[in-house]
Amino acid sequence: MLGYRNYGWREVQPGTSSALPYIIFSTRPINGSSGGPILDAASGAVVGVVSGSRTLSAVEGERGWGASAENIFELFSLPGFIPASRKKRL
Questions:
Q1: Measuring CA to CA, which residue among 47, 45, 65 is closest to residue 55?
Q2: Where do the domains of the chain lie?
Q3: Which residues lie below 8 Å from residue 2, measured CB to CB, with a gap of 6+?
Q4: InterPro entries recorded for this chain (predicted)?
Q5: Which of 13, 54, 8, 29 shows the shortest CA–CA distance to 39?
Q6: How many CA within 13 A on the CB side of residue 56?
Q7: What is the pLDDT of residues 10-42, one digit of tens each?
């Protein structure tokens, strides 16, 4: 994992912003890996979900990016959210 980007695609550091929506990682994800986990190399913890790849600049080249786990976790607290597993039982 290389860092976080905000909604304006600017780099942000944990603890300096309340929103850490995107994670940038060093390798371009292989085709079909969207939706897969982004793992922290040191701890093995899931820190996000793969979304795709993006060219950041001519110097940095193409990098993988995804949604941060913090951002995904917040979705589960939205009013009216019903997980698909519960919808089947209703």
A1: 65
A2: 3-79
A3: 24, 25, 26, 63
A4: Peptidase_S1_PA
A5: 29
A6: 23
A7: 676 655 545 557 788 878 888 888 899 988 888
Q: How many beta carbons lie within 10 A of that of residue 79, not counting itself?
A: 4
CA pair distance 50, 84, nearest whole angstrom: 20
Residue 3: φ, ψ to 5°: 155, -170
Topology given in CATH for the domain delimited by 3-79: Thrombin, subunit H (2.40.10)
CA-CA distance, 29 to 56, in Å (whole number)?
15
Query: How is residue 78 annotated by DSSP?
Result: S
Mean pLDDT of 51-62: 75
Quickly tell me which residue has 């929103």 as its tokens.
19
Torsion 30-34-35-37 (CA) sign: positive
